Amino acid sequence: MANEPELKSSTKRRALSPLMVAWGIVLISLGLAVGWVILSEPPETVSDTPTTSSVATDEPSSDPAITDEPPAMSEPASTPVTETPANNPMLATQSPLPPVPNQNLLVAGDNGLKPALGPDGLVVWKEYARPFEGAEERPRIAILVTDVGLNSKSSQAAIDNLPGQVDLAFSPYGRNLQDWMDKSRNRGHEGFLMIPTEPLNYPDSDPGPHTLVADMSERENMSRLDWILSQVTGYVGVVNHMGSKFTASEEDMTPVITDLASRGLMLVDARSTRFSMAARLARRTGMPRAMNDRYIDNNLTPSNIQNELAELEKTANTFGAALGMARALPITINEIAEWSKTLEQKGIDLVPVTAIANRQPIK
C-alpha cells in the first residue's frame, strides 16, 4: 500500500460547487434587501396641490405664504411735486393770454388768413397784447427771443423756462406754428412774426425762399409778404430777420411798412444795420414801433451774455426803455431766466414788447 498513488482530495471530502456558492450569495443579498425595506420608514409623499387643514392649530405655519404677521407695507410710490407759483416763481409770470385768433381781426389772402383791422376800433397789436400796468417812472426792458418754431426742443424750452414777459418771434418756416403760438400764449408770451429780408451778402447769407429782395418788383415782394403773414395767426407784430440791405432802402421798405401798418400790427426794427429805415417809416405812418438796442447772444458765452444784459440795463436807465434780441438757444434761455430774477431789486421792470411801443428815441 505504500506504493499506492495518493488519492485526489475529492475522495477525501465533498467539494463545494461554484453554482452553490453563487446561489448563496444571491439569497444572502435578497435577505439583506428585504430586511432593509422592512426596517426603513416609508418615504413622505409630496402633493403637487397644497392642501389646507380644517383643524385649527396654535402652531405657526411653516408655509411662508400663510402667516399671522400683517403684510409688509410697501414703500409709497414717489408722487411728483406739482409746480405752483409758490415753489416756482417763474410760473407766476406765465399767466395765460386769451386764445387767438379773433375772427374779427382776420382777412383772407392768396395764401391764407392774414391780420386786419377789426370793427369798433379793434386793433391787432392791442387786442393780442399782454396787459401791463407799471409805474411810468421805472425803466423798462423788453426781450424778444427769435427763431421759435424751427427746433422743437429749443422752442419748448423758451416757452417753458422764460418769464411770461419775454416775447417770442416765430420763423415763418417753422412747422406747426399755430401750435407753438398757442403754447406760447398759454404761458403768457406775446408773439411776433419774423419777416425774412435781404442782407448785404445775399445770397451767401440766405434768409429763405420768401425773402424780400431789393432788386425784385414791388408786386413780387408783396406776394412774398402775403405768404409770410399767412403762416400763423395771433401775433402782435413783426420783426425783420436780417435785412441789412433791404431795410436800408426807403423805396423798398415803404410799401411793406404801409401794408403792415394798415393791418394794425406793431413793428420791431431789428437794426441789422444802423442805416435801417424801418423805425423811421413806421413813425411816419403812425405804426407802433420798438427798436433793438442789443443783440444779446452774438457771442455765446455766459459772461458775454451777462455783459450785454448789463449794457441793456444802462440803456433802460438812460432812456427809460430798452429792447434786447436773442435766439432760442439753451445757454441764452438760461442766462436770461437767471438775469430776470435780479431786475426787481434794481428797480427795473421786465415788460412785453408792446409795453415799450413808441418809448424809444429813434437813433
Describe the protein.
The chain is of the alpha/beta class. 31% of the residues lie in helices and 14% in strands. It contains ten helices and eleven strands. The chain has helices at 18-39, 89-92, 124-127, 152-161, 177-186, 218-229, 250-262, 278-285, 302-319, 330-340, and strands at residues 106-108, 113-115, 140-148, 167-170, 191-197, 237-242, 266-269, 289-291, 294-295, 321-327, 349-350. The strands form two sheets. Strands 3, 4, 5, 6, 7, 8, 9, 10 and 11 form a nine-stranded parallel β-sheet that branches. A two-stranded antiparallel sheet has the order 1-2. The longest helix is centred in the N-terminal third of the chain and has 22 residues, at 18-39. It starts with 17 loop residues before the first helix and ends in a 13-residue tail after the last strand. The model is unreliable at 1-15 and 39-75 (pLDDT under 50).
Major sheet summary line: 9 strands, parallel
Q: Quaternary status of these chains? A: single chain
**Rg over alpha carbons:** 45 Å
H-E string: HHEEHEHEHEHEHEHEEHEHE
**Beta-strand fraction estimate:** 5-15%
Total number of strands: 11
Cα end-to-end separation: 163 Å
Number of DSSP helical runs: 10
Poorly predicted residue ranges: 1-15, 39-75
Judging from the principal axes of the Cα atoms, what is the shape? Answer: elongated
Proportion in helices = 25-40%
Q: What number is the mean pLDDT?
A: 85
User: Structural class, from helix and strand content?
Assistant: alpha/beta
